[in-house]
Amino acid sequence: MLYTHATIITVDQTRRVISDGALLVHDDKIVDVGKTTELTTKYPEEAQYDLSNHIVMPGMVSTHMHCVQSILRGIAEDRDLISWMCDRIWVAQGNITPPEAYAAARLSMAEMLKGGTTCFIESLWAERYGFDGLVKAVDESGIRGCLGKVVMDRRADQPEFRNRMHHGLVEDRQSLANAVQMHDKWHGSSDGRVQVWFGARTPGGVTTELLTEMSSIAREKGIRITMHCLEEKADRDVFDQDFKKGPMQYCEEIGLLGDRTVLIHMVWLEDDDIHRLATTRTHIAHCPSSNMKLGSGFCPVPKLLDNNVNVGIGCDGAPCSNTLDLFQEMSLAAKLQKGLHLNPKLLPAETMIEMATIKGAEAVGLVDKIGSLEIGKQADFIGIKVENLHQVPTYDPVSTVVHATNARDVKLVVVNGKVTVENGQLTTMDEAEVIREGIKAGKAVLSRANLADDIHGSWPLE
C-alpha cells in the first residue's frame, strides 16, 4: 500500500519532515519514503491510501503502563501515593480475577491504539491476573506489548506501608521462576509483537537476594527489566537509611542497571545517580501526569538528557493519570519543565516527539525496528487528521502534534503493516464490547473489594 499526500514527521537520522509525502508499505515493512510525486511515479501500480490533510509520524511508545488499572479509573482521586496505593488500588487489584484482568487489558489496549500508542511496557502483571490472558489481548488487538511479569518476595524489614499490600497481590520467590516460564512460552509470539520482561517490585519491599538473582538470569537469558524506583522521597529514604548507600549505587552493585533496564519515575535523583545511569546506559520512563497528580515531585528530565541518559515517556495507569493519552503527556512534560525552571527553551517539541518515538523505541530494545519512518523498519505509524479548531492554522507540524493535538485526533494507526485503527475506529476489536466488558469488570471488582460504596465525588449526587 502507498500512503500518499501526508506531512510526514520521519524522526529519521536527519529528522526530515516531508510535505506532501508518501510511505510505501509491503507486508510489515516500510519499503520507501519520499515525496508523493516521486513515489507515485516510481510505483504506478501500487494501490494508494490518500492521507491529505494528515500528519503521519511513527507510532508512539508508552514506556510505563498498568493495563489492569483501566477498570479502576477515578477510584482514588486526590490522594497521596501511599493512601492511593494501600487503601484503594492494591485493595481493588487484590480482588481481580483473570477474566476481569483480560477485560481491563483489552480496554487499555483499545484506548492506547485509538490514541496513537503502538507499543507499551506493562510493568507489574501479577500472577493472579493470568498472563495468558494478557498475551491474548495483545494478540487480538494488534498492538506491541512489552509485558512485565511481576517478580517479588517480601523483605522482613520493609517500609511499614508495604506491609499493607493486599494479600491477593503478595507473591513469593516462585514469581521469578514463573516469569521465566512465561518468557520461554510467549516471548516473540504474535509475529514478534509480544516481548516478555521481568517486572520487578520496588527495592525496599523486595529482598536484595531476589533482585540479584533476577538480574543474573536477565543477563543470562537476555530478558529485559522494568522497575519502579525513586517515585517519592520515602523510596530514597530506604536506600539512605536501610542500605546505607545511594539508590543507583545499590542498583548497580546488584546488576540491575544497564541498557536492558527501564526504571520508572525516577523523581528523587541526585548527581551520583544520574552519573551511574549515564555510564550504564540505563533507560528512564518519565510519567509527568502521574507524578504531578500524586504529588510525587518532578523528574529532572533536562538534566538527564543533558547527561545523555535516554528518557522515554509513559502514561502510567488510568487511576493516576486518568487517560492514556501520550499527546497530553508530551505537552505537559514540556510545559512542566519550562515553568519549573523559568526557561521556555527547555524540552522543545522536537525533543518531546523523540521521547515518545525513537527514545521509547531505544528503551524497549527495538530502535532498529520501530521509532522512526525509514526504509527497512517495521510499518508502525499513525495518521493525525488536522481538521479541528484547536489545530489550525498549522505552521509547524511538530509543534501541532505536541501542543495542539490529543488522542481523539488520531484517525489511522498501522502496526506491523496492519491497520488497527481506520477513520478513528478500531478494526481489530469491537469497541462497544470492550467498553461494556470493561465497565462490568470494574463494577464486579469494586463490589468484591467492598469499595463500591466508597467511590464517589465530594459533591452530593442526587
From TrEMBL:
A Gene Ontology molecular-function term? hydrolase activity, acting on carbon-nitrogen (but not peptide) bonds, in cyclic amidines
Q: What PANTHER family does the record tag this protein with?
A: AMIDOHYDROLASE-RELATED DOMAIN-CONTAINING PROTEIN, AMINOHYDROLASE SSNA-RELATED
Q: What is the lineage of its organism?
A: Eukaryota, Fungi, Dikarya, Ascomycota, Pezizomycotina
Q: Which UniProt keywords apply?
A: Hydrolase, Metal-binding, Zinc
**Protein name stated in the entry:** Uncharacterized protein
**Which InterPro entries does UniProt cross-reference here?**
Amidohydro-rel, Metal-dep_hydrolase_composite, Metal_Hydrolase, MQNX/HUTI_composite_N, MTA/SAH_deaminase, OMPdecase_AS
GO term, biological process aspect, one: 'de novo' pyrimidine nucleobase biosynthetic process
Task: Tell me one Pfam family matched here.
Answer: HUTI_composite_bact
Which residue range or ranges hold the Amidohydrolase-related domain? 55-419
Annotated source species: Capronia epimyces CBS 606.96
Q: Which residues form the Aminodeoxyfutalosine deaminase/Imidazolonepropionase-like composite domain?
A: 21-45
